Amino acid sequence: MHFTSAILRIPPATCASGLTTASLGAPDFKKTREQFNHYVSILSDLNLTVTVLPANPAFPDSHFVEDTAVVMPELAIITHPGAPSRAGEVATIEPVLARFKRIEHIRNGRMDGGDVLMVDRRFFVGLSGRTNREGLREFAAIVEPLGYRVDAVDVGAGLHLKSIVNYAGNNTLLLSAAFVHHPAFAGFEHIVVDSEEEYAGNTLWINDTLITPDGYPRLLARLKKLGLPIMTIPTSEFKKMDGGLTCLSLRF
Ligand code: CIR
Fold first, then answer.
1. Count of domains in the chain?
2. What is the domain range of residue 129?
3. pLDDT band at 157, cuts 50/70/90?
4. Which of 32, 36, 56, 67 to mutate to test the pocket of ligand 1 (most atoms within 8 A of CB)?
5. Residue 77 lies in a domain
6. Ligand 1 center to residue 160 CA distance, Å?
């Protein structure tokens, strides 16, 4: 697994009107943009070719671009986001991804990209409030013939699978305690993320560099033991809208 490109979308001035379950107050627009710019600069510094799309104020959550597609070496799958207010976001992503990849679609089921974790030739797909069994079935019908293994994981109360399980390189998963014994994750090393630091479990792996939210010292100490380069980044404004680091880009 090696990424050379990323697609991002500038947060819109309407970003405080997006969906959230957090009780952390409204995000500050200026600070949101600053944190976004910081994220863009980190991906560029890691030598990814970064495509930054214009803000789309009609869709307040549209900078959480990860939910609109699943991109893999062979093709890109345009999802069918589970939240009605986000379904229209895919229309502006498809023509951009079509410049890079053959396109497939989730048509009848529901799926958010935040529920899809790719680790080499495997996909873990969260069944959540946003991704349903029909979405999973359609997804598997596209990727299994290409030689990928697909495992379903019931996300329970979390927003997305990647709110609670992420890949940190070196055959290691960061996961919440409740998922440690899930059979899908057998065969991996585990770093269990403390419940108070659960948000930081959404750490981003880019070609063996880890990008992790600022302000989560216990997880940071454990990540350091992996021996990979680590960068920390402020995420307070995204957290207010249930957004983490993986949500802000499509990487391929
Ligand atoms: C939403 O609820 O859809 C957005 N406010 C946050 C989406 C976060 N996306 C992600 O974790 N992949």
1. 1
2. 5-162+238-251
3. confident
4. 67
5. yes
6. 8
Mean pLDDT computed over 151-156 = 96
DSSP 191-204: EEEPGGGGGGG-PE
Which tens digit of pLDDT belongs to each residue from 95-106? Answer: 999 999 999 999
Average pLDDT, the chain: 97
156 Cα–ligand 1 center, Å: 16
So what's the pLDDT on residue 72? 98
CA-nearest residue for atom 7, ligand 1, is 243
Q: What is the mean pLDDT of residues 226-243?
A: 97
> What is the pTM (predicted TM-score) of this model?
0.96
117: domain CATH number is: 3.75.10.10
Cα(161)–Cα(141) distance, integer angstroms: 20
Q: Please state, in angstroms and rounded to a whole number, the distance separating the CA atoms of residues 189 and 115.
A: 21
Whether 124 maps to a domain, the answer reads yes
Q: Is the CB of 61 under 6 A from ligand 1?
A: yes
Whether residue 106 contacts residue 77, with contact meaning beta carbons closer than 8 Å, is answered with: yes
Token pair listed for 197:
């630091």
Question: Is 229 part of a structural domain of the chain?
Answer: no
Domain annotation covers residue 168: no
Instruction: Given the residues 160, 181, 182, 190, select the one marked as catalytic.
Output: 160
* Pocket lining: 201 vs ligand 1, CB cutoff 6 Å: no
Q: Is 114 in the pocket of ligand 1 (CB under 6 A)?
A: yes
- Give the integer Cα–Cα distance in Å for 15 and 199: 20
